[in-house]
Amino acid sequence: LHPSEKEISIEGSRLMLIDDDAGVRGVVAELLSMKGWSVAEFSDAESALDELKSGGFDLVLTDINMPGMSGMDFLHAAKETASEVPVVMITGYPSLDLAVEAMKEGAVDFLAKPFKAEDLHIVIGKALYDSKAKKAATAGPVSRAIEKLPAVARRRLEDKIKELSILHTISETLDTANEKEDIFRKTMDIGQIITDADKAFVMVVEDDNRELVVRAVSGYDEGRLLGSRFSSAEEPFASVIKSRSHSYLNVSGGDLEPLIVGTGEGGRAGALLLAPMLMNNEVVVLLGLGSSMNAPEISNDVLTLVLNLTAKASMKLENITLSENVFSSIIGALNSLINALDARDTYTRDHSNRVTQYALMIAKSMGCEQGVLDSIGFAGPLHDIGKIGVRDDILLKKGSFSVEEREIMKGHVVRGEEILRPLNLLETEKAVVLYHHERWDGGGYPNGLSGDEIPFAARIFSVADTFDAMTSTRPYRKALSRDIARDEIVRCRESQFDPDVVEAFLGSEILKDGNKDKDEE
Ligand SMILES: [Fe+2]
């Protein structure tokens, strides 16, 4: 064995593990023991800190979020009393920014939950190794041995491992992002960790490529900079957009200063890395990473990781935009179908949209949460789409229906649900289409559900649908006045309608003065 390798053995290291969750602690302790490390477990940071003072530990692994003394407070105290012991933080994704904070405060690394056994072993192994290597280097004669080739080669290998684990984090983290804002946030967080930047922002190219609008920020005073606009024709943005390639610059004062220092104080200098995200080969988003430290250049390894990050984020953005576009074209096509359907029967023109508006008014007066409102707004215009399959001579019939014709008409709810099934509608959306003709007393169709068995949104829709049908002129009768229609709905509470929904209908915007009878104008 090379003397230095003998010196830097990490076997038999003593670890301190702090986590208030006994389950997590048990699993992590067992995984650590597998490597031949001995583990002392603590459920709270206070008692761990006392124990740390008595010495004998090679590393601390601590959770960030704990009742009582937090992981961050522990880190502060540990740096004061036992600064030579490396501390690794455990964090959940939402507190990734805390991890960045912890690294700045002196933590040597972090693990984001959920992590794999392999990640745990790599991170802890590396932290132990680094700490022991540092001690060995300062111990004297060994320092020369470390400078020799095997150690250099080993460091390259470690860098490679670290790089791979960052790449792994980039892909794992971005894979869980489903919205643009989420991608922006996560890209900024990871970018900050990679570059150790104190400021980060995301700008979106808007207004026919003329402007850059700041859509996400990190490390600035709350609210500052968010929503600020910059001209895309100005440097350094213009070159980045034109060349579709990153730019690293040292800035001192000028228009860009707020992006770097974020405080507006004059005369401060700093470094800024701008990395573009592309869609269809055009720059659509800029990631900015700023540091108030003036560094003449950026290391190639760091730059490669950042460009990897923006490339992955671009792909994710492109996917999301693509599926949004596909979805909105389908919805557009369905809405044209609905308009065509309403137009077959001149008396019901705009019926579907009007019913949706009424249903939304009732839902609002019941204090429904946004999710329910969104579902009604989306599925409402499509609620009668199943009527597409009903023949004109039945759909437009002026007299009363035969039993057979009535069954065909009733079939529109089931058919509507079948037509929309490939869109994977949410339960509430499906309910609006399938159950808007169910009755409170169980006498409706298609399933004869009653009372609370009928999904809530469908009960709302039923009142809205009936009110609009009564106040519209039909082939066989003129429109009823709103007062008569209202009284009729009140009369049918507890038979046809949910009494609570009727109550909300009476207090809703529908009956306010602004909404005149359609035929009164
Ligand atoms: Fe219907």
Descriptive terms for the model:
alpha/beta, six-stranded antiparallel β-sheet, 14% strand, disordered N terminus, binds fe (ii) ion
Question: What's the short version?
Answer:
The protein is α/β, with parallel strands linked by helices and 521 residues long.
What does it look like?
Helix 5 (96-104) runs parallel beside helix 9. The model is unreliable at 1-6, 141-149 and 262-267 (pLDDT under 50). This protein is α/β, with parallel strands linked by helices and 521 residues long. Strands 8-7-6-11-10-9 form a six-stranded antiparallel beta sheet, sandwiched between helices. Strands 2-1-3-4-5 form a five-stranded parallel beta sheet, with helices on both faces. The longest helix has 45 residues, at 300-344. The protein has 21 helices and eleven strands. The protein has helices at residues 3-7, 22-33, 45-53, 71-81, 96-104, 117-139, 142-147, 149-175, 180-195, 237-243, 257-260, 300-344, 351-365, 370-379, 392-395, 403-410, 412-420, 427-435, 456-470, 482-491, 499-506; strands at 14-18, 38-42, 59-63, 87-92, 109-113, 199-206, 211-218, 229-231, 247-252, 269-279, 282-291. It is elongated, with a radius of gyration of 32 Å. The structure holds fe (ii) ion. Fe (ii) ion binds at residues 383-384, 412, 436-437. Fe (ii) ion binds next to loops.
